[in-house]
Amino acid sequence: MENLYTYIKLHYPETSEKNWDALIKVLTTRHFQKGEALLKTGELCKSIFYIETGYCRAVYSHEGQELNTNFYFENELATNIRSLKQEKGSEYAILAEEDLEAVIFDKDKLYELFSRSSEIDAMGRKLMEGVLARQEEQAKLFKLDTARKRYDYMLLIQPQIVERVPLEHIASYLGISLDTLLRIHPEK
To answer: Which CATH architecture has domain 2-109?
Structure first.
């Protein structure tokens, strides 16, 4: 959990050793095999996943097609915030695309810890604000910008994507055809 500690200290440097010790007591780790769902479509999201190793993708099934909306790599948080907060079934799945190790923040245990520690509550809010800010930036970019700008943004925030993710998944994520992707990045 050393990587998670570094991640938390980077995003919330005020975290004390006492509160870190309290936090790790409510965390679990789990191995997911390639192809296994961290979250299934329709399932109520009850966790936040910190990706230690491997990567996963958020995918909608729409009219018989898979539409990729996000990729989560090492040292990133994956969850469905709407399902987590509103207690509604997830409209998409989160699938392991490689064997994956995740640290799991169980919602109920985490909220109980929040009620006992204002510092941990503030840390949790700060981490979720970061996730939401990234989602908002992506949503704006994907609605307003060209395919080339979306591609460049993707490389900026997740450069490993072109080495690890199949081209058809990248094209779906960018909302472009495979041919357009090949014109933007022909050397892949």
So the answer is: Sandwich (2.60)
Q: For the chain, what are the domain ranges?
A: 2-109
Spatial distance between the Cα atoms of 81 and 113, rounded to a whole number of angstroms: 19
80-133 pLDDT, tens per residue? Answer: 999 999 999 999 999 999 999 999 999 999 999 999 999 999 998 898 888 888
The pLDDT score that the predictor gives to residue 188 is 44
Question: Is residue 91 within 8 Å of 41, Cβ to Cβ?
Answer: yes
CA angle 58, 130, 78 (to 5 degrees): 25
What order do you get walking across the sheet with 77-78 strand by strand?
27-32, 100-106, 47-53, 77-78
131, exposed or middle or buried, with CB in 10 Å at 0-12, 13-18, 19+? middle
